[in-house]
Amino acid sequence: MSWAGKILRVNLTAGTCVSEPLRMDWAREYLGQRGLATKYFVEEVDAKVDPLGADNKIIWATGPLTGTMASTGGRYSVITKGPLTGAIACSNSGGYWGAELKMAGWDMIIFEGRSAKPVYLSVVDDKAELRDASHLWGKTTWQTEEILKKESQDPLTRVSSIGRAGENQVLFACIVNDLHRAAGRSGVGAVAGSKNLKAIAVRGTRGVGNIHNPKAFMKVTAEKKKILHDHPVTGQGLPTYGTQVLMNVINETGALPTRNHRDVQFEGASRISAEAMAEKRPTDGKSHLVTNQACFGCTIACGRISKMDETHFSVQNKPEYWGASGGLEYEAAWALGAAPGIKDLEALQYANMLCNEDGYDPISFGATVGAAMELYDMGVLTKEHTGGLELTFGSAEALVKLAELTARGEGFGKELGQGSKRLCAKYGHPELSMSVKGQEFPAYDSRGIQGMGLTYATSNRGACHLRSYTVASEILGIPVKTDPLVTEGKADLVKAFQDATAAFDSSGLCVFTTFAWTLADLAPQVAAACGDEYTMENVALIGERIWNLERDFNNRAGFTRKDDDLPPRLKTEPAQTGPAKGLVSGIDKMVPEYYQVRGWDEQGQLKAETRSRLGL
Question: Which of 15, 228, 393, 583 is spaced 20 to 30 A from 535 at the CA atom?
Fold first, then answer.
């Protein structure tokens, strides 16, 4: 078995760090990372808990394949009750931090209580202690990582931290590691900030052992790496263009949400695309893209490293931003670009850097800016509300200023930091928040990709593409091609994607492998590492169990059938252009079918026979 076999429990109120054995009965039923940590969380935390209260807990967790030679085995997740939504939150990150924790000998860290002063956790193999972080409070994630590496006198120390956004309770604050990898959605960084927890610095030298069948594991991981290498998406598209390869594709499909979902196609898409990032600038003859980059153990290398034009207005006289840094990925480029109607690639890159540096989610931020710009366009918001800023659609200057203000929690940025649901409700137009359960939509319009509408509506952590990426099937034809414009069959499709994704997330591997792999590829890797009982059927059942566990927590937290819905705009305002012209979302037809497929009653509650079958 490739679990480390122990967890670290940190009581921030008492200042104690205690090791305890991993519950192996739970590990066998929930695998690890997302599933296993959620099991611990729901067993220990009242579903009605205040997300920013001391009684909430927050868990950093790895999977059994984290830190191993399996491709993409560098993942970790942060699990808590999210302040943006009030629902179960699980945010996944790559980079090197997760593998480092596993190589230090820990499967997860559970934080409980609240520290009276800023602290960070130092972990060096089996030695763990809380240390004063007063000198780190107010620092960005980049500064925090640099300081802690110097203090440890070990450049291989890995740091997972919050920035000023988490400290300032931005409700979509994230947790950043390795400078530009992030547990990015649902406000997990705000929970850490509410506990005065600044960072976790980890150094592990023990490696990952306990592989059930080492020879079989080496053989099967080599076979699966070849599949990734030979696949056109994981072997060519993502390494060459990153996720930004989708910008022009989704725009041509007529499913690129633009100007707060008023439109489904963006006339400026080509100017903020992967192709644009690779073009040479007329100002200096250099391209925006420097190179691609991989996380620990990854054979895909979809990450982008970019360098800004030093003459751009956003970074003039700011040499600290002139070096290469984490580049735009598709969701961020959409949220900072098409959502508010902005075509300035350099402005998008600057705002994205601030999201990384200060630790807040570019998807929720950009989507909230788009909502604010619509309120401004309607005359609901004025310069008096915005501190003199003109929030016109397409304004790169406004985006740059709002990114700075949101990071610092100042002026109108403080209101943006509460997310679009609260912003739109405050100004009398809750219908203009393009969100589900309070979390903003990612980069796919559900009028043009019907399955994504059902994905958003039923996602346990609020609107999310990483819980059921039916774009793979509906647009890319993976693993089979389905029609994006119809509702038929989408309930079964979404359930299959949700369950499979839960299993992949819990294994410690990256969901991007699912462009080339299915559960038939995951199961033998888990079996070789953890035990022969992990057949494809068993792994599929684990994914379904995890999904229902999360759903049950949300039901107990107060979520009902009415929360599995989309904003009125997507149900009443037809797409005006593209292949989906004239269509609205068929969400009202799909949800009842989905409940039936799930084994839930008409109100979205788990039926007794479903609980029994899944052992819940």
Answer: 228
Asked whether 285 and 478 are in contact (CB, 8 A), the reply is no
pLDDT band at 458 (very low <50, low <70, confident <90, very high): very high
What distance lies between CA 38 and its chain's CA centroid?
Answer: 16
Element (H, E) at 611: helix 608-614
Is the Cα dihedral 601, 607, 613, 616 positive or negative?
positive
Could you tell me if 443 and 256 are in contact, meaning their C-beta atoms sit under 8 angstroms apart? yes
Whether residue 434 contacts residue 371, with contact meaning beta carbons closer than 8 Å, is answered with: yes
Question: Nearest CA to 337 among 420, 415, 400, 379?
Answer: 400
- Give the contacts of 450 (CB within 8 A, at least 6 positions apart): 474, 484, 485, 486, 487, 490, 585, 586, 590
Average pLDDT over residues 306-335: 94
Give the three-state DSSP class for 79: strand
- For the chain, the helix, strand and coil percentages under 3-state DSSP, each to the nearest 5: 45, 15, 45
The DSSP line for 166-205 is: HHTT-TTB-EEETTTEEE-STTHHHHHHHTTEEEEEEE--
Paired tokens of 387: 């501190």
pTM higher than 0.85: yes
**Are the CB atoms for 144 and 161 separated by under 8 Å?**
yes
Measured from the Cβ of residue 497, the count of other Cβ atoms closer than 10 Å reads 22
**CA-to-CA distance for 400 and 292, rounded, in angstroms?**
25
Asked whether residue 1 carries a pLDDT value surpassing 80, the answer given is no
Phi-psi region of 438 (alpha: psi -120 to 50; beta: other; left: phi over 0): left
pLDDT digits (tens, 9 = 90+) for 428-442: 999 999 999 999 999
Of 188, 197, 259, the closest CA to residue 439 belongs to: 188
d(CA 23, CA 5): 8
According to DSSP, the residues that pair with 59 across neighbouring strands are 79, 110
How far is Cα 570 from Cα 576, in angstroms, rounded to an integer? Answer: 12
Domains and CATH numbers, the chain: 6-203 (3.60.9.10), 248-439 (1.10.569.10), 446-515+535-614 (1.10.599.10)
pLDDT (average), residues 168-174:
97
Task: Taking residues 348-368, report their average pLDDT.
Answer: 97
CB 30 within 8 A of CB 506: yes
Report which DSSP code applies to 302. -
What are 216-237's pLDDT values in tens digits?
Answer: 999 999 999 999 999 999 999 9
Mean pLDDT value of segment 237-255: 96
